Amino acid sequence: MVPFKFIHTADLHLDSQFKGISGVSDDIRSFLRESTFASLDRLMQLAVSEQVDFIVISGDVYDAQDSSLQAQLRFHEALDRFGEHGIGVYIIHGNHDPLDSPRMKTGKREHVHVFGPEFEQVTLLRRKDQKPAAVIGGISYPTAKVTENTSLRFRRSREESLFHIALLHANVDGDPAHETYSPCTRQDLIHSGYDYWALGHIHKRQILNELPYIVYPGNIQGRSIRETGAKGCYVVQVNEDGKADLMFHELDTVRWFQEEIPIDSMEGEEAFQVQVEDRMQQIRSECQGKMSIVRFVITGRGSLHEKLEEGRIAEELLHELHRKAVRSAAEPSGFEGLVWVESFHVRSGPWIDRNALLLEDSFLGELLRYGQHAREDEKSRSEVFRKALYPLMANRELSRLLNEAADEERNEWLQRAEEMAILLLSSHEEGGGGKIDED
Ligand SMILES: [Mn+2]
Known about the structure:
It is a single chain. Helices cover 34% and strands 21% of the residues. With 439 residues, it is α/β, with parallel strands linked by helices. Manganese (II) ion (MN) binds at residues 11, 13, 60, 94, 96, 201, 203.
C-alpha cells in the first residue's frame, strides 16, 4: 500500500448566524459572523502546511438550505485555493445542504468531486506520483430528510488492496441529541469492510471505533452553548501497512465554555465577582489568540443564593463585564483573548438542608416530595405541566416553545420552582424548617 495523508472534516456550517447571543456590539457581531469563514481559512492553511494528498468533507458545508451567496463564494474561493496546491476535495452533502437546495453547485473543478444521491466510488491517486492510493465511497443527501440506512449500500471495490474510505452524513447508534437521519449502527459500519468511516452530522468530536476507524471530527467552529470546547478536524496519516494515525487540529476562532460556580462556601458578593474574574482569566490563558464565550452556571447552596435569585448581582456584573468587553473589542486585535460572558444561570439553592425538608411533615415537605416525584415519573410530570401551563397554552407561540422543551429542561424548571418555594415558604414557617444551624 502507498502511504498517504488526508484531512477529514465535516459540518462547516458556513455563515452560521449566532442568533442565540445578544447584547454584543456590531464589531463583535461581525467577528462572530466571520468565525466560520476564519475556521475555513485555517483549514486551508493546515491542508497546505501538512501537505495532505486530499481532503474529505462529510456534509453540512452550509448552515441552511437557503445559504447565503457569501457562503457560496467563500467556499468556492477555498476550493480554488486547494486546487492551486494540488489538493483534491471530496464532498458529500448533508441534511443542512442537500443536493436539492439552491447554490449547491460547485462548478466545474477538476480537483473537486461531489458525490451524488446514489452510492458511488472513486479511486484516488497520490499527489506526488499519481499512484493509486485509496478508494472513496460516498452518498449525498438528495433532500433534507434521509431516513434510509444508506450505510448498507457501501461495498468494497474491486481494488481490494487499496485503503477504503467511506463518506457518510449519519446518526450512528441513534444519538438522541441529533436528528436520526441516515440511521445506522456501529456494527453496520464495521461489517462493511471499509477501513475508515469519515462521518459527519454529530457535532461532537468522537472516535467510535478504531479497527476500522469510525470517526466524527465534529464541526470546525462551535455555534452555540451546546457546542463547547475545541473544534477542528483530523489529519489522517495512512502508512504502508494500511494503519491510520489520527491527529486532531484546532481550527476554531471563537470557543464556547460552560463553567460552574459553586456558591457553597462563598461569603459575599465580592467573593462571587472574584471567582468569576478568575475563571475568565483561566479561559483567556487557555484560549490565547481566540475569542471565548462563556456561560456561568451558579450551583451549590449558600447564603448568596437569595441575592443571586433576585437577579441584581448577576445583572450588574454582566453589564459591567459587557461594557469592558465592548471597549476592548474596539481596540486593535481586540478579539484575541476577549472573553464574552453569555449569561449567568442561577441553579443554586438557599442554605437549607433539602434532604431534611424532604422528610418533614409540613406543607413544604409535601411540596418537595411532589416535585421530586414529578421529576422522576413522566406521567406525573406531564400532569404537573399540563395544569401549571394551561393559562399560557392559548398563546400559539408560547405553547409551541413550551411543547418543544425537553424533559431535562422541564426538570430544571421544576427544580427552580422548588428552590423558589423553599426560599419563599421557609422564611414564613415556624422554626424555619430544616435550616442549617450557623456555627
Ligand atoms: Mn451539521
